[in-house]
Amino acid sequence: MITGMKNTKTIYLVDDDDDDRMLIREAIESIVKDVEIVEVMDGQELLELIAQTDIEKDLSLILMDMNMPRMSGIESLSILKSDLSLRHIPVVMISTTSNNELIRQAYNKGINAYITKPVSIQEYNHLAEAINVCFLSNYPTLHPVPLSKNFTTQQILIVEDNHDHWELMKFVLNNSMPNIKLTRTEDEENTLFFLSTLLKNSQPLPELVLLDLYMPNRDNGLQILTAIRNFFAANRLMTIPIIVVSASDHIDDIKDSYRNNANGYMVKSPDLENSLAYFHELAYFWKSAITLPKKV
In what residue span(s) does the Response regulatory domain sit (predicted)? Predict the structure, then answer.
């Protein structure tokens, strides 16, 4: 594993509600190790804070409410994602709204995930565990997550050029989630052909993509990431989460994956047992905690 990511991770928590910030903070600090949480009142304050911070040296995660005074989450998101020096910062939007159009708009403007704001302590802890696994590359969680019954309709596309790595991922996922459907493609051409064939035949598209970064070099992986995004945009399809998977935890690999619109970045574990738990929990939390736009 390449070492390049600092141990302590900084989360910007942006919400105008004091109670919500307190509850989210307490849940995260009870679940996540080595985390620094910076509380921010609204989007305007967030941008002012970032302007004073050497953000290039700080791999941050932004948890942001949608509806805030002075500057809303959508407005500040637009500014963040239009600035190339800030696009690498993953943004998770947390809100009470269930308005599908607003959720769709947020994804179109570049959020990495949308999570409905919790209403119970159990749900706050679930949110914290999802953040821990999906965006901070920490595993496993404190409590075992449910098994295969949660994945009866899940289809996962794995883009991996290494046969041995594919066999390992297939073994791990099939053992923890035997009811899911797995498909492997090996390069950009095969990936786009597979997606085009599904669309042409009106077959369901994958609900999750796991994309190896080094295929065999990272430029190939980033190019495939962009090609998948362009395919969905060109065909006016609803977004699907694309998780970049790599043995590298180098900060430049993580930042460039987020700059190219990856939803998440997973650092592979050399330990088989850890990998099994991590892949299982990654799929579980994307299915159970994160909301995607509904088809209309």
Answer: 10-132, 155-283
